[in-house]
Design goal:
Keywords: ATP-binding, Nucleotide-binding. This protein has 964 residues and is mainly alpha-helical. It is built from 48 helices and 7 strands. The strands form 2 sheets. Strands 4-5-6-3-7 form a 5-stranded parallel sheet, with helices on both faces. The longest helix has 21 residues.
C-alpha cells in the first residue's frame, strides 16, 4: 500500500490508498444515441463520473416522473463505470418491500454485483447479517451506518465505487437513512452515489440538500419528440404529429417509446393521422398494457397477474401462483417478454418498468387481487419465507381467517424492530393487533415500538395491554435478560413501557404511582421485578415530583440491599445511586467512598454491560462531586473509550458530556467547552435526546460565564421544572446572570435552585448555590443576615463533607462577609485549594488574597499572589478573571508574564487527531474512532503539522505539548 501525500502541503498524512493509477472512464457517445433529448444531462453525468473516479466522491440525484428516463441514464453510467473497471453496486426500491429494513442496502451489497465484487465488498453484507439477530436502538443504528461506511471505503481503496439506487421513493426507510448518512461523507473518496427518485416536495427536500448534483428530467419537447419519431420511423414527421405525440405522452420517454412500438405493430408511418394516434393511446400506459394483454392467451395473462402480485420473483413461484406447469409458465414468460410486458433475461421475473407492473396490478378485479395476494402469502409461508416478505400480501388480502396471519404480522414487526426500522415495525404490529385473535402480548409490542417514535401514540396500546393482561398472563416476550426459566408478566412489562412513555411526557409522578402498584404484585425473585425497580429509580432520577413520591421506597431499597448472589446488578445499582445521593447530600467523603467501592467491586464480572455502564456513570459523578478527580477521570475516560470502541454514538455523547463536567470543575475551560460542544453536536447528528445532554449545555453556559461571553440562545431554553437533570442548566444560568452583573435575578435563580435541591433531599455544597446567592445579595447591598446565614451553612456543610473545592469556595465567600477575618479566611482558602486539582477556584482565591494584600499595602505578597492567579487564569482560559486580575497586578508593581515562545496552540480537535496519529493510528482508524471523515482528519493533521513546524507524523511524538 502506498502512503498518500497531503495535496496542499506535501506532508505525509498516513492515509492508506490502493497502489497504482485510478482507471479512467467516460460516457461513450455511441451508447447515448438511443436516449433522446438528454444530451445536457449526459454531459453532466460524464463530468460527475469523472470526478468520482478522481476521488472527488459526491452524490448525483436524478429527479423525474415514472418513465422519464432515470433508469436509462443510470444504465448508461453503469456501463461506462463497468468499462472503466470500477466496482458497481446496484439496487432498486420495490413497492412491496418498503417495510423490509435495509432491503435496498442489502441489494447493493448482497446482490449479484456485490457478491462478485472482490476484496472487502462481501464484508458489507456480513455487517447487515450481524445486525439481524439483535435489537437496534439509535446508537446501534448509527454504529451500523458507520460500519457500512468504513467497509465501503475499504472497497473504494481497490477501485472506484459506484452505488446506483433506482426507484428511491420505494426504498425502505433504514436504507434511505443510510444513504442520507453516506452522502455528505463521500468528499475526498473515490465513491459516487447515483440516486433516482420520483419528484415531490419531501423527496426534493431530502435528497437535494447540500453538495449534490441534481438533474431534473423535464418532459421531452415537441422538437425532441419529432427528432425521435423521425429517427425511429425512418422519415420526417409533421409538426402536428410531433405535437400530438408529445401531448398524448406528456413528453414521457417511456410512453413515447411505447407509442412508437404500437405504431410499428399497427403498420403506421410518419404520416399517421392525429385521430388514429388518439385512438391508439387514449389513456397512457394503462391502455398500452390493456391492449397488449388483450392479445395474449390465458396462460400469459395468468402469469402476468401472478408476477404483478409477487413483484420481482422467480419463475417457479410465479407459476405456482398462476396455476401453470413449468413448460406452460416458460411459454407464457416468452410471450410476455415478446410483448414487452416482462423484461428479458434469465434472472428474476419482473416487468419492464414499474409503471407496467402497477397497470397490470390495478386492472385486476379487486376480489381476484385479494385472493391472489392471500394465495401468495400461503405459498411463501409454506416455503418458509421470511415474515416480512409474507406480511405485505396479508395486508393486501385484507380480512382473512388464516390462523397463522397474526403470528406472521407480529414476527414481521419484530424483524423490522431488530433491524432498526421502528416505523415499519409499528405498521406490522398495528396490523397484527387489529386482528381478533391478537392478545395483549401483541398490543404490548406495538406500544413498545411506538414508544420509540411517537410516545403519545404509544399510550393507547400500552394501556390496552395493561388492562387486558391478567396477572396470570406470562411470557418471556423478548425482554432483555428474560428466559423461559423466569417468565415475565405481560402486565408488568406493559407498566414499565407505559411508565417510560409517561415519564418523558412530563407525567413522572403518574408513572411512579403505576409502577409502585405493579411492584406490589411482584415478588423480589420475579425476573421482571428488577426491571420495574430500575424504572422506579429512573423516575426518581428524571422527575422531581416522582423523586419526592418515591422517597420512602428509595430509603427502603437502599437500606435493605438484596443479597449480591440473587441480584448483583441491582446491588451495584443501589450502591452507585447511594454514592451519588451521598455526594449530593454532603455526606462525608469517606462514606461516599464506601458506597463507590461497594458499587464497583466485581463490576468487571457483571454479565449485563448496560448495567455496568450505568453504574460506572453514577460512580464517576459521585467521585466528581467529592473531589476525587483522578477517580472520576479514570471512570469517564473508560466510558468514553468504551462507547467510542463500540460505536455507540448516543452513549458516546452522554459520556463526553460527563467528562466535560469534570474538565469544567478542574478549570480546563477550553477543553470543557470543546467536549461539551462535541457532545451536543454528536447528539444532534445521531438524532438522540438524552437526560445527560442538559449537562453538556450547562457546561457551555458556565464556560460563557467564566469567559465573559454570551452562549448560543438554544442552550438557555426550555427548562422543565420537573426534570431533575435541568437543575444543572438552571444553576449555570444563574452563574451567567451573576457574571453579567444581574445580581437580583441571579440571587432569585440561586434561591430557586437551592429550593429544588432541598426538596429533592440534596443539601450538599457540591454546587455552591448558597455562597453564590450570598455574593449576589452582597453586591446589591441587601439582606446581610441572609447572606451570612447562607455562607455559614455552606461552610459547615462543606467542612463536614471534607471536599476541598467546596470548602475553598465557601471560605472565599465567608471572607467577603467577615471584615475582621478576611485575610485569615482567604489564606485558609488558598491553603485548602493549594493541592486540589480545582485550579480555577484556586486562581479566584489567590486573586482575592492578592487584592487583600494590596489593600494592606503588602505589595510584594500581593504581587506574588496576583501573578500566580493571573497565570492560572490564563492556563484555564478564564478570560473574565484575567481581565479582573490584570489591573490589580499592575498596581502591585507586577507585570503579566509574557506567553512562552512557542508555536500557535493546537485546537482541541487538532490535539486529539495528532495524539492518535502519534500513537501510530492511520487516518482511517482515527476518523472511525472520532466519527469524522478522513478528509477532516487530513485537514486537522495538515494544520497541526504547520503549527508544529513538521512534515511527518513520525515527528509528532516529540513535538506535541505535554499531556497530548
Amino acid at each position: 500500500m502506498a502512503q498518500a501525500v497531503d495535496r496542499d502541503t506535501g506532508a505525509d498524512t498516513g492515509s492508506d490508498i490502493g497502489a497504482g493509477e485510478r482507471p479512467s472512464m467516460s460516457l461513450v457517445p455511441p451508447a447515448s444515441r438511443s436516449i433522446h433529448g438528454r444530451d445536457a444531462e449526459i454531459a453532466v453525468l460524464g463530468d460527475w463520473l469523472a470526478g468520482v473516479v478522481r476521488g472527488d466522491g459526491s452524490r448525483c440525484v436524478l429527479m423525474g416522473e415514472a418513465g422519464g428516463g432515470k433508469t436509462s441514464l443510470q444504465q448508461l453510467v453503469v456501463a461506462a463505470a463497468d468499462a472503466g473497471a470500477a466496482t458497481v453496486l446496484t439496487a432498486g426500491g420495490r413497492e412491496l418491500e418498503q417495510d423490509f429494513p435495509f432491503g435496498t442496502v442489502r441489494q447493493l451489497f448482497d446482490g449479484p454485483r456485490g457478491r462478485r465484487a472482490s476484496g472487502p465488498a462481501g464484508v458489507l453484507a456480513a455487517r447487515l447479517d450481524d445486525a439481524r439477530g439483535r435489537s437496534m436502538g439509535t446508537g446501534d443504528t448509527f454504529a451500523l451506518f458507520q460500519d457500512l461506511y468504513w467497509s465501503l471505503l475499504d472497497v473504494a481503496d481497490q477501485a472506484p465505487v459506484l452505488l446506483v439506487v433506482d426507484d428511491l421513493h420505494w426504498a425502505d426507510e433504514p436504507s434511505r437513512r443510510w444513504l442520507e448518512f453516506l452522502g455528505p461523507r463521500l468528499d475526498g473518496v473515490a465513491a459516487g452515489l447515483l440516486l433516482a427518485s420520483r419528484p415531490d416536495e419531501v423527496a426534493r427536500a431530502r435528497w437535494t440538500a447540500g453538495d449534490v448534483t441534481v438533474l431534473d428530467l423535464a418532459p421531452l419537447s415537441a422538437d425532441v419528440t419529432a427528432r425521435w419519431l423521425t429517427a425511429d420511423l425512418g422519415a420526417p414527421v409533421s409538426p402536428r404529429v410531433a405535437r400530438t405525440v408529445a401531448e398524448l405522452t406528456g413528453g414521457n420517454p417511456l410512453l413515447v417509446r411505447e407509442l412508437v412500438q404500437e405504431m410499428r405493430a399497427h403498420g403506421l408511418g410518419p404520416d399517421v393521422g392525429v385521430d388514429r394516434l388518439r385512438a391508439l393511446l387514449p389513456s397512457g400506459v394503462r391502455s398500452f398494457v390493456l391492449l397488449r394483454m388483450a392479445s395474449l392467451d390465458q396462460r400469459a395473462s395468468r402469469l402476468a397477474a401472478a408476477v404483478a402480485v409477487l413483484d420481482r420473483t422467480d419463475l417457479p413461484t410465479a407459476a405456482d401462483l398462476a396455476g401453470l406447469d413449468p413448460d406452460a409458465a416458460a411459454d407464457a414468460r416468452n410471450e410476455l417478454e415478446a410483448a414487452r410486458i416482462l423484461g428479458g433475461g434469465a434472472g428474476p421475473v419482473q416487468f419492464v418498468h414499474p409503471l407496467v407492473r402497477t397497470a397490470v396490478h390495478h386492472q385486476l378485479d379487486p376480489t381476484r387481487r385479494r385472493r391472489l395476494h392471500l394465495r401468495a402469502a400461503e405459498l411463501l409461508h409454506g416455503r418458509g419465507a421470511r415474515a416480512d416478505l409474507v406480511a405485505p400480501h396479508l395486508l393486501e388480502a385484507g380480512d382473512t381467517d388464516t390462523v397463522w396471519a397474526t403470528a406472521v404480522l407480529a414476527e414481521a414487526g419484530r424483524q423490522a424492530r431488530r433491524h432498526g426500522d421502528p416505523r415499519a415495525a409499528a405498521r406490522w404490529l398495528r396490523a397484527a393487533a387489529a386482528r381478533p385473535d391478537a392478545g395483549p402480548q401483541v398490543l404490548l409490542e406495538w406500544g413498545e415500538t411506538l414508544a420509540a417514535i411517537d410516545p403519545a401514540a404509544a399510550v393507547q396500546p400500552l394501556s390496552s395491554a395493561l388492562s387486558r393482561a391478567g396477572d396470570g398472563v406470562r411470557g418471556t416476550g423478548g425482554i432483555p435478560g428474560a428466559t423461559s426459566d423466569g417468565a415475565v408478566t405481560v402486565r408488568a412489562r406493559a407498566a414499565v413501557a407505559l411508565a417510560q412513555v409517561e415519564l418523558y411526557r412530563g407525567h413522572g409522578l403518574q408513572a411512579a404511582e403505576s409502577l409502585l402498584e405493579i411492584r406490589a404484585e411482584l415478588s423480589d425473585d420475579d425476573p421482571v421485578a428488577e426491571r420495574v425497580d430500575f424504572q422506579l429509580l429512573a423516575c426518581g432520577a428524571v422527575s422531581a415530583a416522582a423523586r419526592e413520591r418515591l422517597a420512602p421506597w428509595r430509603r427502603r431499597v437502599v437500606a435493605e440491599r438484596f443479597p449480591a448472589g440473587v441480584r448483583p446488578g441491582w446491588v451495584r445499582m443501589v450502591a452507585a445511586t447511594d454514592a451519588l445521593d451521598g455526594a449530593m447530600d454532603g455526606r462525608p467523603v469517606g462514606e461516599v467512598a464506601v458506597s463507590v467501592s461497594r458499587a464497583i467491586h466485581g463490576l468487571e464480572t457483571a454479565t449485563d454491560p448496560a448495567v455496568a455502564g450505568i453504574v460506572l456513570s453514577l460512580i464517576g459523578l459521585a467521585q466528581l462531586l467529592v473531589d476525587d478527580f483522578d477517580g472520576a477521570r479514570a471512570v469517564f475516560d473508560r466510558l468514553v473509550q468504551r462507547t467510542d470502541r463500540d460505536s455507540l454514538a448516543d452513549r458516546h455523547a452522554d459520556m463526553l458530556a460527563q467528562r466535560a463536567s469534570l474538565r469544567l470543575r478542574v478549570g480546563d475551560l477550553a477543553e470543557a467547552l470543546a467536549e461539551a460542544q462535541d457532545a451536543l453536536d454528536l447528539a444532534d447528528a445521531v438524532g438522540t435526546t438524552s437526560s445527560l445532554l442538559p449537562r453538556a449545555a450547562a457546561v457551555v453556559v458556565s464556560v460563557a460565564a467564566d469567559q465573559g461571553t454570551a452562549p448560543l440562545a438554544y442552550v438557555l431554553d426550555d427548562i422543565d421544572p420537573d426534570a431533575t437533570a435541568f437543575r444543572l442548566l438552571a444553576y449555570s444560568r444563574a452563574e451567567l446572570l451573576l457574571a453579567q452583573g444581574k445580581n437580583a435575578a441571579a440571587a432569585e435563580a440561586f434561591e430557586a435552585y437551592g429550593a429544588m435541591n432541598l426538596r429533592l433531599g440534596w443539601s450538599g455544597a457540591a454546587s455552591p448555590w448558597r455562597s453564590r446567592c450570598a455574593t449576589a445579595l452582597r453586591r446589591q447591598g441587601v439582606a446581610p443576615d441572609r447572606s451570612r446565614e447562607l455562607v455559614d451553612a455552606e461552610l459547615a456543610i462543606a467542612r463536614r463533607a471534607g471536599a476541598p473545592r467546596a470548602i475553598g469556595v465557601a471560605l472565599r465567600a465567608a471572607a467577603h462577609l467577615r471584615a475582621g477575618s478576611t485575610a485569615e479566611l482567604l489564606a485558609e482558602a488558598v491553603t485548602v485549594l493549594q493541592d486540589s486539582p480545582a485550579r480555577l477556584e484556586l486562581a479566584w482565591a489567590l486573586a482575592d488574597f492578592g487584592v487583600e494584600h494590596l489593600r494592606s499595602d503588602r505589595r510584594a505578597d500581593a504581587r506574588a499572589a496576583l501573578s500566580r492567579a493571573h497565570d492560572l487564569a490564563v492556563e484555564c482560559a478564564a478570560h473574565r478573571l484575567v481581565a479582573q486580575v490584570r489591573p490589580a497586578l499592575l498596581s502591585s508593581g507586577g507585570r503579566p508574564r509574557p506567553a512562552a515562545d512557542r508555536p500557535p496552540a493546537l485546537t482541541r480537535s487538532e490535539r486529539v487527531v495528532a495524539g492518535h496519529a502519534a500513537q501510530g493510528l492511520g487516518n482511517r482508524q482515527i476518523a472511525r474512532a472520532l466519527f469524522v471523515t478522513e478528509k477532516t482528519v487530513e485537514a486537522h493533521l495538515r494544520h497541526a503539522y504547520r503549527k508544529l513546524g513538521i512534515r511527518s507524523r513520525n515527528e509528532l511524538a516529540g513535538r506535541l505539548p505535554a499531556g497530548d
